[in-house]
């Protein structure tokens, strides 16, 4: 950032805050605000907003040379509302998108659109991060678009993904879908091309799928502004809503007017932990970034998804699609006022 503001200088085992003239800042409120920003010690070229109300409160360059930001809490709250409203619109259009994906899968072959359709099916079922070519090359961490052939194994109609994900964390995920499994077998055993799993035939050559192509496909086929991350956010929200509903059917938090706030809070903690296990994130990150807070607010007020939706989950394969009635019930829950 440019313009007047504060920065910091190393002093002993910590830092001192200085103004644009290089003078040490002694104002207690400013120092407290900077402390609460929790700016990582490794950041360099740090700029700190001179006022408490600015939506960007601090910037700096991390150890990898990337510009990072600290935002005002109110700005985060507003952005979160916008994100989850957009996710809700995306989810409402999912049935139509799934129909288009199925049509592309039915086309057969290994052309680009069929490969991209299979990847969207996996995003829909598997809580995958999309992945980044730069992260795969520089950090050895992978997502769906950068997965290598060695990262998958096939067991019947199931595909098991075993790979180093973000921050080097090992992820093991299973997806059950006979149609996609057959296609993945073809891609894994293909002759030619790179070690990357997802590639398409372009004439006589194999071309690796790029993450941007996958997001472009989602936008084109949905007719909206959705992206791969929306599948992950929506999946986390649905899973949390289901976990809250199931938890409220289990003593001591059985649904009734007399259920205590403490009992509901315990159910919420357990639900967020379950979502975190599926996503491979911490519970704090899941709650802050992936689960629509309206689901938790409704639960605190005694509202969960419909009993009919929970009953529909009875015969669902562990790694298969979520019944439509469940997703519709979550959308209705989000729309409750």
TrEMBL record:
Enzyme class, broadest EC rank: isomerase
EC annotation from Swiss-Prot or TrEMBL: 5.6.2.1
Single GO BP term: DNA topological change
Domain of life: Bacteria
PROSITE patterns referenced in this protein's UniProt entry, alphabetically: TOPO_IB_2
Domain DNA topoisomerase IB N-terminal: 14-62
Keywords assigned by UniProt, alphabetized: DNA-binding, Isomerase, Topoisomerase
Reactions performed catalytically: ATP-independent breakage of single-stranded DNA, followed by passage and rejoining
InterPro entries in UniProt: DNA_brk_join_enz, DNA_topo_I_N_sf, Top1B_N_bact, TopoI, TopoI_cat_a-hlx-sub_euk, TopoI_cat_euk
Pfam families according to UniProt: Top1B_N_bact, Topoisom_I
GO molecular function: DNA binding; DNA topoisomerase type I (single strand cut, ATP-independent) activity
Ranges for domain DNA topoisomerase I catalytic core eukaryotic-type: 76-287
Sequence similarity: Belongs to the type IB topoisomerase family.
The protein's name in its UniProt record: DNA topoisomerase
Species this chain originates from: Paraconexibacter sp. AEG42_29
């Amino acid at each position: 950032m440019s313009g007047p503001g504060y920065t910091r200088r190393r002093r002993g085992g910590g830092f001192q805050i200085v103004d644009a003239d290089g003078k040490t800042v002694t104002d207690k409120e400013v120092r407290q605000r900077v402390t609460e920003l929790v700016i990582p010690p490794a950041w360099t070229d740090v700029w700190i907003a001179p006022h408490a109300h600015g939506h960007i409160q601090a910037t700096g360059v991390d150890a990898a040379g990337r510009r990072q930001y600290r935002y005002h809490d109110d700005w985060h709250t507003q952005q979160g509302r916008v994100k989850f409203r957009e996710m809700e619109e995306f989810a409402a259009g999912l049935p139509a998108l799934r129909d288009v994906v199925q049509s592309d899968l039915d086309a057969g072959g290994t052309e680009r659109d069929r490969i991209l359709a299979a990847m969207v099916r996996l995003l829909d079922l598997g809580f995958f991060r999309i992945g980044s070519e730069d992260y795969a090359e520089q950090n050895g961490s992978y997502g769906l678009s950068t997965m290598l052939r060695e990262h998958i194994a096939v067991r019947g109609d199931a595909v098991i993904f075993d790979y180093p994900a973000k921050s080097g964390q090992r992820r093991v995920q299973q997806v059950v879908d006979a149609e996609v499994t057959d296609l993945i077998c073809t891609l894994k055993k293909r002759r030619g091309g790179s070690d990357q799993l997802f590639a398409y035939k372009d004439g006589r050559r194999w071309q690796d799928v790029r993450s941007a192509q996958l997001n472009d496909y989602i936008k084109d086929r949905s007719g909206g502004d959705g992206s791969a991350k929306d599948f992950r956010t929506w999946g986390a929200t649905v899973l949390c809503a289901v976990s809250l509903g199931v938890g409220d059917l289990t003593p001591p938090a059985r649904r009734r007017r007399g259920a205590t706030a403490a009992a509901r809070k315990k159910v919420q903690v357990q639900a967020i932990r379950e979502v975190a296990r599926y996503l491979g994130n911490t519970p704090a990150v899941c709650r802050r970034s992936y689960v629509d807070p309206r689901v938790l607010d409704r639960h605190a007020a005694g509202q969960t998804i419909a009993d009919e939706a929970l009953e529909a989950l009875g015969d669902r394969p562990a790694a298969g699609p979520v019944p439509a009635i469940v997703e519709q019930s979550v959308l209705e829950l989000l729309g409750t006022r």
